[in-house]
């Protein structure tokens, strides 16, 4: 797959990595539009191909009282409005085969969550929508195993597939990024994305609230670009401390521009080699 196949994506001839970025969950229309407006301005300036990310519902939560969403249809309509307002593609994750077609009506890319990347019915349902399918590598899988998830999509008649590394389980409460996985998965003839912010999660905390190490976002991102990641995924918010989901490992929106400026410079050097 070539990222030019993503409907409406811009700056694909710039030689830069592409970016999937936005809030963890859609909390409101104003919030989504505010984040998208700033991200579009920054990525247009740096000629970075950009896709807005937002979850219409958070199905995988540690506690039953955790925020899950504002309503599926309401959140999906907000994603569509973001796309139409800024003329950009959007991506969202979905959680069952029955939801694939519903989500596909509103977004350009369907993301298969890491915990669900081996679920055949989910992969097949995503493939049959005809949308671009982004599969997150399970925290429990070796990079080599992702070829089987990719083949499930391809064998269902859809070659528009990419994969995302989001770290690998290291003990019970930490993740580690094995950068060898990026060139390994690139050999599968798919765009390979590094999920910076989820790689810095600290799951399974005794409080039932996932922790994180956002101070290492720049470190993880720089290394990902240096070893050849085609794209980056990150979650960003103008008030991470009060975000309703994954605030502990999100990038503050005020820091997005400076980070991307550094990463585009590294990418230019890497492309020069």
From TrEMBL:
Top-rank EC class of the record's enzyme: transferase
One Pfam family this sequence matches: DAHP_synth_1
Keyword line: Cytoplasm, Transferase
EC number(s) reported in the record: 2.5.1.55
GO cellular component, one term: cytoplasm
GO MF annotation terms: 3-deoxy-8-phosphooctulonate synthase activity
Pathway involvement of the protein, from the record: Bacterial outer membrane biogenesis; lipopolysaccharide biosynthesis; Carbohydrate biosynthesis; 3-deoxy-D-manno-octulosonate biosynthesis; 3-deoxy-D-manno-octulosonate from D-ribulose 5-phosphate: step 2/3
Catalytic activity: D-arabinose 5-phosphate + phosphoenolpyruvate + H2O = 3-deoxy-alpha-D-manno-2-octulosonate-8-phosphate + phosphate
Subcellular location field: Cytoplasm
Gene3D superfamilies, per the entry: Aldolase class I
Annotated ranges, domain DAHP synthetase I/KDSA: 9-265
Name by which UniProt lists this protein: 3-deoxy-8-phosphooctulonate synthase
SUPFAM superfamilies xref list: Aldolase (SSF51569)
